[in-house]
Design brief:
CRO Repressor, 176 residues, 2 domains, alpha+beta, 4-stranded antiparallel beta sheet
Length: 176
């Protein structure tokens, strides 16, 4: 644990450099979508890639080729699932959640908040973060697929629901 060896330090630096180059090349080959912050599935894959890279660097029992193969497998699977989710509604629903309406036209959606484990104070915090001093200024609050909250400010424009079309709990017929 407290031993020091230039050989082991050199190994970590050399393997780290090569693994990092391999990771960059693999990510560039699969495109920007591979590591975007879009949903919980993407987060899990990103953490797995980081863990794999750490294992390559620190575990002497894992060769560089084994590690690069593990990285390539994770990135390839992420690419395949992302590609498939665009082409298959079933796969898209399997790996991605849908945005949920938490607040709309002055009313908190308590059941949605309970299911998503969101408290009213968290919605107020999101409003304050956006510089909103009163919920009277807010038309809707949506819990996005990546876990962030989007706030839509009220507008004088009657046609302001374009971005709400895929939000669970939103029904245009309920508008005044």
């Amino acid at each position: 644990m407290f031993s020091f060896s230039w050989t082991s330090i050199g190994r970590v630096a050399f393997i780290g450099f090569l693994a990092y180059i391999a990771l960059i090349l693999l990510l560039r080959m699969t495109g920007k979508r591979t590591l975007t912050k879009l949903n919980a599935f993407d987060l899990v894959v990103t953490v797995a890639i980081g863990s794999t890279l750490a294992t390559i660097l620190l575990n002497k029992n894992v060769s560089l080729m084994q590690g690069v193969t593990a990285l390539a497998t994770l990135i390839f699977l992420q690419f395949i699932f992302a590609w498939s989710s665009i082409r298959s509604r079933f796969i898209n629903q399997l790996i991605k959640s849908e945005p949920k309406l938490l607040f709309y036209q002055g009313q908190f959606f308590k059941e949605s908040m309970r299911k998503e484990r969101i408290q009213q104070i968290e919605i107020w915090q999101a409003a304050r973060t956006k510089g909103i001093s009163s919920m009277d200024e807010v038309e809707a609050v949506i819990l996005e697929t990546d876990g962030s909250m989007s706030l839509i400010k009220k507008s004088n424009n009657q046609k302001n629901d374009d971005t709400m079309q895929n939000v669970k709990g939103y029904h245009p017929a309920n508008k005044e």
